[in-house]
Design a protein that fits this description.
single chain, 11 helices
Length: about 280
């Protein structure tokens, strides 16, 4: 079944196929000498980002969870290659950076990127060698109290930060993680319910994916939409075995990541009498 019904089956079939074709074409191009060596690190990073988009499109489409795991090595390979190329180009031209992203957790785009990959890695149970590569790529040890705690669930001994870098919306998730009473499930539900709307930013702080699927800004016809999944919540649930029962069926909660053998958690919302799936999506 389709897990994200904001787009029809035809959309997911079309754009999943286009993603696969674009990635294959890009990987082929990466093997050839670059026409513009200075841009090559960003091109490789964009390919890495497209692999993540494909992974999330496959989830939205209803693909098998085991299918998602197979994309992780390719994602890590391209991120590592982009870093290596960036280091070489920056050293040659004596510049601080030669790509578009700011690779610091204080940058919300990079923070969510790292959080999503940690959540996917934990829920998909990637092998230790891949996990270690991911943690090395993320770096930034001891910088964020929430992300550090979650990484430390599989990386004992990691230094834990003392500050939360992005209070809104993540203070809600931190409270849920630290709660020990029956209120924990309620706090987790509140985080998931407010996650998308509280991530809204303006100007340079706007998340690159935030308006994908918005009919007035980035409609489905553009093909950029891959779903809006609160993978951060899944990361915390997997790391600390939180009770996510109140989140099952919420439109942004990818509960199937934690239940690879089914049944799908996304059917719950459809079964709730008198309530519409789409009423939760303010697009």
């Amino acid at each position: 079944m389709i897990r994200d019904s904001i787009a029809p089956a035809e959309y997911w079939e079309k754009w999943t196929m286009i993603s696969e074709e674009n990635i294959a074409k890009n990987l082929d191009q990466i093997k050839s000498p670059p026409g513009n060596p200075i841009y090559r690190p960003q091109f490789v990073l964009d390919t890495c980002r497209e692999i993540l988009r494909l992974l999330l499109r496959l989830y939205s489409q209803g693909g098998a969870i085991s299918e998602l795991r197979s994309l992780f090595p390719q994602l890590l390979d391209t991120w590592e290659l982009s870093n290596s190329l960036a280091d070489s180009v920056c050293a040659e031209h004596n510049v601080k950076t030669c790509r578009d992203w700011v690779f610091e957790l204080s940058n919300l785009n990079h923070y969510t990127w790292c959080f999503w990959l940690v959540g996917l890695a934990l829920s998909l149970k990637i092998p230790d060698d891949q996990w270690n590569r991911l943690v090395h790529l993320i770096g930034e040890e001891g910088k964020d109290i929430l992300l550090d705690q979650i990484i430390a669930s599989r990386q004992p001994g990691r230094a834990i930060g003392t500050f939360l870098l992005h209070e809104k919306p993540y203070v809600r998730l931190l409270k849920a993680v630290n709660e020990t009473s029956e209120q924990q499930a309620i706090l987790l539900q509140q985080f998931v319910s407010s996650w998308y709307f509280e991530l809204n930013r303006r100007g340079k702080q706007q998340l690159w994916w935030y308006h994908y699927g918005d009919p007035e800004i980035q409609p489905l016809e553009k093909g950029s939409y891959f779903g809006r999944w609160c993978i951060e919540a899944v990361a915390a649930v997997e790391a600390f075995k939180l009770d996510d029962s109140l989140c099952l069926g919420l439109p942004h909660y990818p509960g199937d990541l934690l239940r690879p053998n089914g049944p799908s958690t996304h059917s719950i919302q459809l079964e709730k009498k008198g309530r519409s799936w789409l009423r939760f999506f303010r697009v």
